[in-house]
Write a structure and sequence with these properties.
Shape: globular
Number of strands: 0
Order of helices and strands: HHHHH
Radius of gyration: 19 Å
Structural class: mainly alpha
Helix content: 55-70%
Strand content: under 5%
């Protein structure tokens, strides 16, 4: 057995992306727990989520992005990803959390459907 595995020498240097993923997991758990307790329909919770994400959209322009290199197919793909998987996945998630609860719905969060 290699010396590294035997000593349980874990990586203790974390970068910003690791911390962002950890924060994303915590925020998603809170979102699911709060979503179960809200007395509103799932479509209302989804609409509020989309609204608050649109409030942050102007800050994306602070990051330099070569918009002149996007083809029509790339733009169509971007619009598709923004509308259908993003919005519908939030809607279906909120419906499932309302029906079965966050702990049972969380089991299927990363289920490989393909």
């Amino acid at each position: 057995m290699p010396e590294r595995i035997r000593r349980f020498d874990f990586l203790m240097n974390y970068n910003r992306g690791d911390l962002m993923m950890l924060a994303a997991g915590v925020v998603w758990a809170l979102y699911s727990i709060i979503g179960k307790k809200l007395p509103v329909p799932p479509i209302t919770a989804t609409t509020c989520s989309v609204f608050f994400s649109l409030l942050l959209w102007p800050f994306a322009f602070f990051y330099p992005f070569p918009a002149d290199h996007i083809s029509a197919a790339g733009l169509a793909g971007l619009v598709y990803i923004c509308l259908f998987p993003s919005i519908l996945s939030f809607l279906f998630w909120n419906i499932s959390v309302q029906k079965v609860g966050p702990s049972h719905a969380g089991v299927y969060l990363n289920y490989p459907w393909c």
